[in-house]
Amino acid sequence: MPDAAQRLAALAEEVLGAPLPIRIRAWDHSEAGPPHTPVLVVRRRRALRRLLWKPGELGLARAWVAGDLDVEGDLYEALDLMAGLVWERGPAAERQSKAAAALKALRDPALRSAARTLVGIAGPGLPPPPPREEARRAWRGPLHTLRRDKEAISHHYDVGNDFYELVLGPSMVYSCAYWEGTEADGATLEDAQRAKLDLVCRKLALRPGQRLLDVGCGWGSMVLHAAREYGVRAVGITLSQEQAAYARKRVADAGLTDQVEIRVQDYREVTDGPYDAISSIGMAEHVGSARYAEYAADLHALLKPGGRLLNHQIARRPEPDEEAYHVDEFIDRYVFPDGELAPVGRTVTQLEEAGFEVRDVEAIREHYALTLRRWVANLEAHWKQAVRLTSPGRARVWRLYMAASALSFERNRIGVNQVLAVRTPESGASGMPLRARDWRG
């Protein structure tokens, strides 16, 4: 009688100390667990071998990307139900080192017994190779060199502009949108992205003839909006060849080649300041803690006295021990290699240490949850086309990371903030209005 699901459910309950809150269906068509919940589908025994050789998040990620694991039903509900058991085992577990966890597993008779049971269910076999979508780390060496950053950016962004068109929609903006009313007001994702770009322009107080530098310009939406609506001369920089080609075509199609320049260039290579304003929207997450002081100092040097910086950046919650912080393995291997998040307080401090006067911090994390859910809906609505344009594994990576990220923003595990800072001159004349929060013009 097929019983793989029952054995897996019993094993999970033994290891986790609680029954699985979702149903399991195994490769032998057996099922176990509560009815009327999402179903975790273990399509192949190979999923278990992945967990045996890489226990935890990386093994689960590889099984998901390879299609060995799947979810039937509401993916958000499944992730929410599983999060408390698999990914959030409590503060002490989160701070425990991998070496300590491995040593504990070797000494714990119950865990050794569970491993033997899992081997019996999984069957013999060598560790399956990682899915081809996993970052291969060809760029060995120190973090955040010019070369390594460029290759890391290429891993995420050079997967096809047609694919991103499906996910992002006509706005081609890959950062948090901004709903000025409520979602129930009927605003589209494109409306909310246009509102975000305009909010950035207003915070920067852009005026005709000014020079704007957009760091990490993506597909050119910010520089196009600023040039078209505010009359600035804009330079957008990106490390992605595909993004640059797409953005240049958009600039040409809009008839703005005399106002907008798109460069494949690192922020450390920009030498043609000063600029009146700088926008950095969803780029600072790639900078890394080791380079953040350099990033802040470079942007400060590129601004004229009185110039403004708008730094739009995802933030994590502070750790009791900041030295113990590490990037999630799934995100590091499949989504944003070498990316790092920092608490918003640390970001503000480093901008101030570089010489900026921070004038406003606006937290908009709920807006990102709404944005991500719209992107997931776009991907799911065009699933077959997305798979054709990239690969089944790549589409699965994007669906999982965006859905999980939406929940993280909703549950306040991560946030996103717009930090407005000024290169205030020695005279102290910041050029800011007395009531800076009135951004509506």
Q: Widest sheet: strand order?
A: 7-6-5-8-9-11-10
Number of strands: 11
Shape by Cα distribution: elongated
Helix content: 40-55%
> What's the helix count?
18
Helix/strand order, N-terminal first: HEEEHHEHHHHHHHEHEHEEHEHHEHHHE
Oligomer: single chain
Structural class: alpha/beta
Keywords:
single chain; 441 residues; alpha/beta; four-stranded mixed β-sheet; 45% helix
Task: Tell me what you see in this structure.
There is one protein chain. The protein is α/β, with parallel strands linked by helices and 441 residues long. The chain is 45% helix and 15% strand. A hairpin with a 5-residue loop joins β1 and β2. α4 packs across α18 and α16 packs antiparallel against α18. It is elongated. This is Class I SAM-dependent methyltransferase.
Write the layout of secondary structure elements.
Layout: H1 4-16, E1 23-25, E2 31-32, E3 39-42, H2 46-53, H3 57-65, E4 69-72, H4 75-86, H5 91-95, H6 98-107, H7 109-122, H8 146-157, H9 161-168, H10 189-203, E5 211-215, H11 221-230, E6 233-238, H12 241-253, E7 260-264, E8 275-281, H13 292-302, E9 303-316, H14 329-335, H15 344-353, E10 357-363, H16 365-381, H17 383-389, H18 392-410, E11 414-422
Parallel strand pairs: 1-3, 5-6, 5-8, 6-7, 8-9
Antiparallel strand pairs: 1-2, 3-4, 9-11, 10-11
